[in-house]
Design goal:
alpha+beta, Alpha-Beta Plaits, 2 domains, 4-stranded antiparallel sheet, 8 helices, 58% helix, elongated
Amino acid sequence: MTFKDIFKKSFIEGYTRFDNSPVNILIVFSIAAVFAVYIFIAYRLLTKKTFYSKTFNIALPCLTLITTAVILTIQSSVVISLGMVGALSIVRFRTAIKEPMDLVFLFWSITTGIICGAGLGEIACVLCFVLTIILFTLDRIPVAKAPKILMVNATGYENEEKILNSVKKYSKYFTVKSRALSSGNIDLVIEIKALKEAELVKEIASFPEVTSASLLAHDGEVTY
């Protein structure tokens, strides 16, 4: 037997050493399904988005199982693995991931599928345990208080200074984000960190020139 035959045999056996019996495949998929359901529940508990995407959450466990199937297939045959790599290389994802946490869970699902497909369920278990603790801990650490958005509609351009004086009296920080003038009316959008929010809104709303005053909260980026 030549060196070429020995290398070829070792190379092929390296891809076929996985036990692809029906029982073993069923066990691997069962383990992957458990972790997939865990990721589904974790995303539902950890996400703080205003609009919860149920379809994205359903896609996460599906990705785990699909990735598991891909890894199992790659391990079964070197020929199939090369063909699958070529087929998957032309796939392009057109959906933009705008939320960073969605990207974390997306990679988590794919990674878990790879790990389970490789038969390393212990690593997937440790990953779930450590990542859950980190996500829950960091999510509850107060980094900065998000400012509020004050929206005021008033008649008369000259009343802007009067409104801003009231905002300055009740706030430790404020900045005018938008100023719209039309037909003698003024619309102000002010980002504030108010000390007494209720008193501020009541005082501004009591002005005869003010037609409406609203204070809104948001979950976006914060200002330090």
